[in-house]
Specification:
Blueprint (H helix, E strand, L loop, with lengths): L1 H11 L1 H12 L2 H7 L5 H20 L6 H16 L6 H16 L6 H25 L3 H4 L1 H17 L14 E3 L2 E3 L6 H9 L2 H20 L4 H23 L12 H19 L16 H19 L15 H5 L11 H9 L8 E3 L14 E3 L15 E5 H5 L5 H9 L4 E5 L2 E8 L13 E7 L3 E8 L12 E5 L1
Parallel strand pairs: 3-4, 3-5
Antiparallel strand pairs: 1-2, 5-7, 6-7, 8-9, 9-10
Helix pairs in contact: 1-2, 1-4, 2-13, 2-14, 4-5, 4-6, 4-12, 5-7, 6-7, 6-12, 11-12, 11-13, 12-13
C-alpha cells in the first residue's frame, strides 16, 4: 500500500495516489488473502509494484530508467513467489513498445528509440534475473535441474484441472453457475471478480475507461499519461486471458488484478470529482488545483463508510460479495463457497462440550484448518474410496463448498441435509458450516435377506446374513456378495 502511494505520487500526484492507496488498503478480496499464510497476496503485491513502476516510467515526460530497474527487482521477487509472474515479461515488452510508438514521431528517430527501449528491457531483465539467482539457492548449485523441475511443474499445472492428479479416470469437481463441472471455462474469472470487487471499484473502474477515451479525444490527457492508463487496463485484461487458458482454475489466482483495478477505479473517481468541480482534469490528467476540497473529503469518507460493509465481517472478509450483484446469497448459487471460514466458531462450540478432548469429529477441512482450533481428534469424512468413515465419529461438520459439489457422495449430502443441525456457523447470512451429531447406526428396519444369520460379535456388532448375485459360479470366476451387519 505504501509502495503504491509512493509510485503513484510520481505519476499522478498526491491526491489521486492517496485515493488509490486507500482503495487498495481496504479492498475486501485483497484483505482476505493478505491475512493468509499463502502465496497469492505476495504475488499480487510484487506483480502490481513491478507493473506500476513501469507505468511510472512510460507515464513521465522525462522518464528515469531507475523505475525500469525497480520494476525488474519486483518482477524477480514475483517470479520467486509464483511462476505465474512470467506474465510480466510480455507485459514489460508491451509497455516499452507502447512508449516507443508514442514518443517516436519521426521515422529517422526509430533506430535510436528502439535502442533506447532495448536497453531499458535489458536493465529490467538483468535486474529480475539477478534477484532470481541471488535469492534462490538452488540456482547456485544446480540451475538446470531447478529450472527443469519448474518447467515440469508448470506443464502439469496448466494441463491438469484442480482436484485431479492427472491419472486416467480422474473426475475433478468445481462448482460454477450452479453446476459441478470439470473446467468452469473462460467466464469463471470475470464473474468471480465482479462478485469480489467493492461497489466503488465496480462503479468507477468503467468511469476510468470512459475518462481515458474522452480525455484523449478532447486533449485532456498527455500521450504518456494516456499510455500509462491504457497499459493498466491491458495488465488486467491480458492477465485474465492468460490464467483462463490453463485447465487448473482457482478463484484466488485472479488476485493480482485487484490492486490495479483499485488504482484505475481511483482514476475514475478522481476524474468524476474534477467534473463535479466544474473543471477538466488538466493537460496532465492529474491537476489537483481545480479540485474541490469538500468533494475530495466526501470521496474519502464515502470509501471508508462503504468499507464498513465488509470490515464488520472481520476476520472473515472472504464472506463479502458485491451487494450490487445480489451479494452472498446470489453468489452462493453461482460460485463455490468457503475456504474454512466458520470452522473456528464450530471448534469453539465443540470445545465447550464435556470431555471435548476425547471427541472424534469428521470434517473435509480436518488438516487444513479445523485441527488447529479443535481440542479433540479431527479426521476426514471419507478415506480413499470408502465414504463411511464419518459414521465412526461423534460429530460430523459439513461444509457448504462440499455440499455444493455433492461430496463425498450425493446420498451422504442428502442424508445430512435431512437432519437438524446441532450448531450452524453463519457468516453474512450464509450457513458456511453445520454440526451434526452422528446418528446411531442401529436400524429397526431390516431388509429381506436371502441367507439370514444372527451372529453376535462381542455385543458390538451382529452379522445378519448375506445375499449372492448368482446361485452358482464357474471355476475361476467371480461372484458378488452383499453382507448385512447391525
Amino acid at each position: 500500500v505504501v509502495g503504491s502511494y509512493l509510485l503513484l505520487r510520481r505519476l499522478a500526484g498526491k491526491k489521486l495516489a492517496f485515493l488509490a492507496a486507500l482503495l487498495i488498503a481496504l479492498d475486501p478480496y485483497f484483505l482476505t488473502h493478505s491475512r493468509r499464510v499463502h502465496l497469492d497476496a505476495i504475488l499480487a503485491s510484487m506483480m502490481y509494484l513491478s507493473a506500476l513502476s513501469l507505468l511510472v516510467y512510460v507515464g513521465q515526460a522525462l522518464p528515469s530508467r531507475r523505475y525500469v530497474l525497480l520494476s525488474g527487482i519486483f518482477a524477480g521477487l514475483a517470479c520467486l513467489t509464483k511462476v505465474t509472474a512470467v506474465y510480466l515479461i510480455p507485459f514489460t515488452l508491451l509497455a516499452l513498445a507502447g512508449r516507443l510508438v508514442t514518443t517516436t514521431k519521426e521515422r529517422r528517430l526509430v533506430p535510436a528509440a528502439l535502442w533506447r527501449e532495448g536497453k531499458s528491457f535489458l536493465v529490467w531483465a538483468v535486474a529480475g534475473c539477478a534477484v532470481l539467482f541471488l535469492l534462490w539457492p538452488a540456482m547456485w548449485v544446480r540451475p538446470a535441474f531447478a529450472l527443469g523441475e519448474l518447467v515440469r511443474g508448470v506443464r502439469w499445472g496448466v494441463a491438469v484441472p484442480h482436484g485431479a492428479s492427472g491419472s486416467v479416470g480422474d473426475v475433478p469437481v468445481q462448482f460454477f453457475l450452479g453446476k459441478v463441472v470439470s473446467d468452469p471455462g473462460p467466464g469463471f474469472y470475470p464473474l468471480s471478480s465482479l462478485y469480489r470487487v467493492s461497489p466503488i471499484v465496480f462503479l468507477f473502474f468503467p468511469v476510468s475507461i470512459v475518462f481515458a477515451l474522452v480525455g484523449q479525444v478532447r486533449g485532456w490527457l498527455a500521450r504518456s499519461k494516456a499510455l500509462a492508463l491504457w497499459l493498466g487496463v491491458a495488465y488486467i485484461l491480458f492477465y485474465v486471458v492468460m490464467i483462463s487458458l490453463g485447465a487448473k482454475k482457482l478463484e484466488s489466482y485472479v488476485l493480482p488484478i485487484f490492486p490495479m483495478l483499485d488504482t484505475l477505479a481511483a482514476v475514475g473517481l478522481f476524474a468524476l470529482l474534477h467534473w463535479l468541480s466544474g473543471r477538466n482534469p488538466g493537460r496532465d490528467g492529474v491537476s489537483h488545483r481545480a479540485l474541490s476540497p469538500l468533494l475530495y473529503a466526501a470521496a474519502i469518507v464515502g470509501i471508508v463508510l462503504t468499507s464498513v460493509v465488509w470490515l464488520r465481517l472481520f476476520p472473515h472478509y472472504s464472506a463479502y460479495f458485491n451487494p450490487l450483484l445480489g451479494g452472498a446469497r446470489t453468489a452462493s448459487r453461482l460460485l463455490a463457497f468457503g475456504g474454512g471460514e466458520g470452522l473456528d466458531a464450530v471448534a469453539g462450540y465443540l470445545n465447550q462440550k464435556e470431555d471435548a478432548e476425547n471427541l472424534v469429529v469428521s470434517t473435509p477441512y480436518d488438516r487444513a484448518v479445523f485441527r488447529y482450533y479443535f481440542e479433540g481428534t479431527a479426521q476426514p469424512p471419507s478415506r480413499k474410496h470408502w465414504t463411511g468413515s464419518w459414521l465412526l465419529s461423534d460429530y460430523v461438520v459439513w461444509y457448504l463448498s462440499y455440499a455444493q459439489r455433492d461430496l463425498p457422495t450425493p446420498e451422504i449430502v442428502d442424508l445430512l441435509e435431512s437432519l437438524e443441525p446441532e450448531y450452524v456457523a453463519r457468516i453474512n447470512g450464509i450457513d458456511y458450516a453445520r454440526v451434526y451429531e452422528v446418528p446411531p447406526l442401529v436400524s429397526e428396519n431390516v431388509p429381506p435377506i436371502s441367507n439370514p444369520a444372527s451372529v453376535n460379535l462381542a455385543d458390538q456388532i451382529t452379522f445378519l446374513g448375506y445375499d449372492l448375485e448368482e446361485s452358482r459360479v464357474e471355476s475361476g470366476g467371480e461372484i458378488g456378495i452383499t453382507l448385512y451387519w447391525q
